Predict the structure.
Amino acid sequence: MKIERIEIRHTKMDLVTPFTTSMGTEYDEEHIMVRIDAEGITGWGESVAEGTPFYSYETVSTAWHIMRDFLIPALLGKNVANVGEAIGLYEFARVRGHMMAKAGIEAALWDVMAKSKNISLSKMLGGVRDKIDVGVSIGIKSSEEELIKDIEGYLAEGYKRIKIKIAPGYDLSMVQAVRREFPDIMLQVDANSAYSLEDIDLFKKMDEYNLTLIEQPLGYEDIYDHSKLQRAIKTPICLDESIHSLDDARAAVELKSCKIINIKPGRVGGFTESKLIHDFCMSNGIPVWHGGMLESGIGRAGNVALASLPGFTLPGDISASKKYYKEDIVNPPFVVNQDGTMEVPKGPGIGVEINLKNLDNVTVRKEVFNA
C-alpha cells in the first residue's frame, strides 16, 4: 500500500479531575494523534508522549520533531505490504530510541493494515478475547477518607482491580487503610520509581497486605537493584518504566528482577515490540498486563485490542473514557461493564469512529504531509 498522506495533531484534553502521582499533578493530557492515509484507507494512532519529561525523556515537542523530521519522511510515498516492512525501512529503523514517537506512527499503520483486510485490530494482533478484564488507577489523594470513597465508587462501577499510587510518606498507612476497608479486593500499588534500596524494610512490611504486585518501586531505568529487592520480599515486583524492549524484558527475567511485567505500546515502540515481549513472557510463565497513559479513545482502542492477547492475564489500566475525560474523541466511548470487563471492538481496525468535531476542539496545532 502506498502511504500518501500523514497528519499529526498536538492535542490537549482537560482531565475530569487532577491526577497526582509521585511525579506531580496533571490537570490535562497532551498527546499527538497520527492519521495515515493509504489508497483510500485512513488509519489512526496516538503517541503518548506528554507535555513534560517526568515519566519519560520524550515529550510532545521531541516526538513532534522526530515524527516530522525523520519518521514521516521515511514513510511518505513508500509502498509497503505490512507494518513490519514499514518500520523496517532503513530511514525509519535507524532512529534510535524515541519509542513514543515511533509507537504513534506504528499504531496508525496497524489500523490501516487491519482495515485493508477488513478485520479488527484485535484479530490482526492475535487477540483471543471478546472482552478484557479492567482495573483502575487511583492517584494520590488528600486523605484516607477520600481514597476510600473513591475506591468504593470504582468498585460499584465494576472494576476488578484497584491500583493506588504511592510516594514517600503516602504508602504503608494508605495500604493499611485500604485493606481495613476492603480485605479481599485485588489491590496493587505503583511507586513510579519513588524509592531506593534503603526502603527495603518498608516493602517487607507491605508483604503482610496481600498485594497483587508492587509496580516500579526503584529507579526508572533500573533492572539490577530490583533483583535485590525482589529477593528480599514476597510480593511480586512488576516492572514498567524499566522495560523499553524485548532485550530489557529478557534481562529482567534472567536477573529475576520481577515476577510480572507491564506492557505499554508507547513505552516499547509500538504493537510489534509489545507482541514480542508478550510472547517471550508467555513462554517463560511471566504474567503481563496492559498499562495506561491516560490515552484518548484512539489510543485506548489500540490498548484494548492488544490486551485481548492470551498472555494478558491480569486486569489492565484501561478505564472507561469518562474516568479521565468529559468527552472522548471517538464514538462510541469506552465503558466498563458491571462485571468489570470492557468490550473489544469488533469493527475493522481500531473499531471506533473518530469524532472530528471533538478532535478539532482539542487540537492545539496540526501539520499535514503529502507524498
Observations:
- DSSP finds 14 helices and 15 strands in the chain.
- The longest helix spans residues 99-116.
